[in-house]
Amino acid sequence: MAEHEDQRSHFFMGFFIGGVLGALAGIFFAPKSGKELRSDIMEKGSEVLKDGKDIYADASTQAREIIVEAKLQAEDLKKEADRYLSEARQKAKEILARVEK
Question: What is the DSSP string of the chain?
Answer without folding.
Answer: -HHHHHHHHHHHHHHHHHHHHHHHHHHHHS---HHHHHHHHHHHHHHHHHHHHHHHHHHHHHHHHHHHHHHHHHHHHHHHHHHHHHHHHHHHHHHHHHHH-
